Amino acid sequence: MNYVRCVDNRAYLHFKNEPLRNEPISLTIGRIYKALPLAAHEREHGWLRVVDDTGEDYLFPADYFEAVDIRDGTFADISSTVTLHLSPLLKGILQAEAAASHKSVSSLLREWVDEQLDLPLAI
User: Fold this and answer.
1) How far apart are CA 33 and CA 65, in angstroms?
2) C-alpha to C-alpha distance for 110 and 113, rounded to whole angstroms
3) pLDDT 10s digits, 26-46
4) Torsion (CA) 97, 99, 101, 107 in degrees, nearest 10
5) What is the reported pTM?
6) Residues paired with residue 67 on neighbouring β-strands, in sequence order
7) Domain 2-68: which topology?
8) What stretch(es) of the chain map to CATH 2.30.30.40?
9) For residue 50, with 0-12 CB atoms within 10 Å meaning exposed, 13-18 middle and 19 or more buried, which class applies?
10) What is the spatial distance between Cα 77 and Cα 34, in angstroms, rounded to a whole number?
11) If we measure between CA atoms, which residue out of 7, 4, 48 comes closest to residue 29?
């Protein structure tokens, strides 16, 4: 998987007979986005296909982003908190699974996220 960090989000698209857009497009500067594979013609024209803040993938100018190398260890010391709301039944199941595997629920969830994203072990 490829990830990129947004470094620019100015509106760049203007169609004939439409008013000029002043609002930023659906990108947040500093946020990390997933980049998707490109067709050859998209690559040739300097585009990058990114899943933006709307959850949809769109083409953006490649210079709106910088590459993020998740294997270089840069993010190893950065931690963040995620809140997960579970039904009482699911919470009970997770606690039972964690106890059976001699792990905490948090550890079990981190392992599951790592497996689902298939990220390098350096993170």
Assistant:
1) 9
2) 5
3) 888 888 888 999 888 877 888
4) 80
5) 0.57
6) 4
7) SH3 type barrels. (2.30.30)
8) 2-68
9) buried
10) 21
11) 7
